[in-house]
Amino acid sequence: MDSMKGKVCIVTGSNSGIGKETALALAGMGGKVVMAVRSKERGEAARQEIVETTKNDSVELMICDVSSVSSIGEFVKDFAGKYSRLDVLVNNAGAVFNSRQVTVDGFERTLAVDYLGPFLLTQKLLPMLKSSAPSRVINLSSGLAKNGVINFDGLQSEKNYNGMKVYSNAKLLVLLWTYAQARHLEGTGVTMNAVMPGFVATNLGKGSGSRASAIGFGMMRLFQSSPRKGAETSVYLASSEKVKGMTGKCFAKMKETTTIEVSYDKQLQDRLWETTLKLLRLN
Ligand SMILES: NC(=O)c1ccc[n+]([C@@H]2O[C@H](COP(=O)([O-])OP(=O)(O)OC[C@H]3O[C@@H](n4cnc5c(N)ncnc54)[C@H](OP(=O)(O)O)[C@@H]3O)[C@@H](O)[C@H]2O)c1
Question: I need a labelling partner for 28 at 20 to 30 A (CA). Which of 3, 50, 52, 246 fits?
């Protein structure tokens, strides 16, 4: 196992599922882990469990709701006030919603949680990632990205909302972003890769708001792997010497994998990049 001693890692959405197991594994390797979560209560319960299991008390809870521009800003300010380096950022938080919701910033909530929030958080942490290079960013995509479509006029999913379709679209955007940003980061020592964690038994979909989808997700549990198994590729990309310097790729089961053809379209990637900067007023 590679050591993470002296490394500072942020894992978003680390109070449950794949994120919790990722935080636990990185803490188990001796890393300083910041659990960026939206609920203090749920986060603290998970933090205590991780500290007890790993005997590593360098595990800190910090509040970050990735659906909120102001919460992300507050988090980055707090983090920069406490830490002088950042070696690993795992953009793990994600969610799927049965009905269309809008965030405080006016964004459709799936787009905000699964794509815009991680994008914004990463841009705000880039100065620290660059000054700590070599450093790594890992973005959670999904095998469902292959069902995704990119519709620049319908990014906010105002018409014919379908939770799984909107989620698949957002996870496809994560791939295009990852490939574009990895190009932008060439020569900086900051790498960025995407992960497809597989089909994992977690809380995903449980809070989607519909009994039918909760039952559906429940039945699928029979075919799913454990959160620990689901976290393996994130942990591998965060810690392994074998992927040192690798960037702009997608990994599944700890191996490089190819993704839907459209995700490699550089013109689309660049258009998405510009569109996202405008949406987030990041010029
Ligand atoms: N499970 C799968 O089969 C699967 C497959 C492909 C990809 N993924 C991806 O893997 C990642 C982890 O999901 P999971 O399966 O482990 O599901 P999970 O158990 O539901 O974990 C998701 C985590 O994200 C957090 N989160 C949700 N909304 C947030 C927000 N606005 N701000 C901050 N944190 C927020 C959740 O916090 P709360 O507890 O507060 O809600 C939770 O900690 C997600 O990106 C998901 O899309 C999962």
Answer: 246
